[in-house]
Amino acid sequence: INAEYMGIPTWNDLVFRGKHKEALYALLATNPFPEFTGRVCPAPCEGACVLGINANPVSIKSIECSIIDRGFEEGWMYPQPPHFRTGKTVAIVGSGGAGMACAYQLNRAGHTVTVYERDPEVGGLLRYGIPNMKMEKTLVKRRVDLMKEEGVTFVTNSNVEVGQLLSCNDAVCLCIGSTIPRNLVVPGREAPGIHFAIEYLGVNREGLNAKGKNVLVIGGGDTGNDCIGTAVRQGAKSVTNFEVFPEPAPERQNGSNPWPQWPRIFRVDYGHAEAEAAYGRDPRYFSVSTKDFIVDESGKLTGCRTVQVDGKMQEVPDTEKIWPVDMVLLAMGYLHPENIVKHVDVKLDPRMNFQTPQNSYRTSVPRLFAAGDCRRGQSLVVWAIREGRDAAKEIDASLMPETTATPTTPVSGGRVKVHQDIAMIRTPTIATYKS
């Protein structure tokens, strides 16, 4: 099989030709965790698909899932520890998409990698921020177990001190995500029954239950949709969703939103469909701004006061309305990472993310790197994985400068020149590739 470049068209074509094992190797060349991206990513790749200009795009996510799922079923996915160890040690703080990707690549390069996670289980938001109906947690465990067999060490329930990690490792990479949620500062916000989405989702770890309640979800993104779906399945009396922005158009507006940009169109996700099936209507209301929350004399949450806004976010007169509410879930995104770096003077950017030079993952502190949402801001899992891979490449180059002419970690994703015989590729390491 001759292929000059790896990428989505390559493994799509290999699946079309029935070459599923080769498709797996092509997919893994640029994406170490397709079982995650194929389930939780909103698939901007499909929005940029050429076929989508005048027809439905190729269902890239479904193909991606089928490739990796078959790889595990057929036994093509097995532990592949590195053939040698460099003697260099790297500590990674955070075990979400970026942390896992960084650990995966550095371990493949032969470095000794330890991942520190403050929660009881590994996975970050992949485990604690995504409901099971969207991605089963067994998939995270399966991947973590495979990485452990390949030599990666995971330490959970761990609140680390970055300065101490720097003193006993050759490099440290911060992959702690963006975990400070955006708050809604209005009167009544402190009433019982108002929660951030992260307190509610992900194995419902706070024990919150929507059964029998009038649930209001504020925020219209993926997290808001997950809150809607979870509340419906828990048996909520009603579920309502507010979005402050106007309702999107049903079709792409080529003037303001041309291909290959992500289509900003009205979409019906699983949570919206399940809510409509349960309650007889789509739960979403657009151009709605929350004025305050209403509590009774005992302090119990009873309602929410709103007003309509126009395209300039100005209130529309005579549109005030009160909604009966027992439970509110705030799903308005995340602002920046938590400040876990004590006693180390690391610079932050104006958005309170870890500051790094352009096209670099080095922070202002020597041997301290940062990747993922804590560096670039809240984003998609595909970006977290990409950042983890690219940070690993830079860390490897800093630890082993004498080998940079033939790097041992993959180049940044997308089009990667590879060995002509795809069947020879077993792991996405440039040691296998020839230019």
| Strand residues, percent | 15-25%
Count every helix, treating DSSP H or I runs of 4 or more residues as helices.
Answer: 14
Proportion of residues in helical segments? 25-40%
Q: Could you give the distance between the termini?
A: 16 Å
What is the radius of gyration?
Answer: 23 Å
Largest sheet: 5 strands, parallel
Low-confidence stretches: 405-435
In total, the number of strands is: 17
Question: Could you say which structural class the secondary elements and strand pairing correspond to?
Answer: alpha/beta
Mass-distribution shape: globular
Tell me the strand order in the biggest sheet.
Answer: 4-3-2-5-16
The overall pLDDT, averaged over residues, is 90
Q: Would you give an account of this structure?
A:
The chain is of the alpha/beta class and 435 residues long. It is built from 14 helices and 17 strands. The chain has a five-stranded parallel sheet with strand order 4-3-2-5-16, with helices on both faces. Strand 9, helix 12 and strand 10 form a beta-alpha-beta unit. Helix 1 packs antiparallel against helix 2, helix 2 packs across helix 5 and helix 11 packs parallel to helix 12. The protein is globular and about 70 Å long. The C terminus is likely disordered.
Kindly summarize this structure in a few lines:
Helix content is 30%, strand content 16%. It is α/β, with parallel strands linked by helices. Strands 4-3-2-5-16 form a 5-stranded parallel sheet, with helices on both faces.
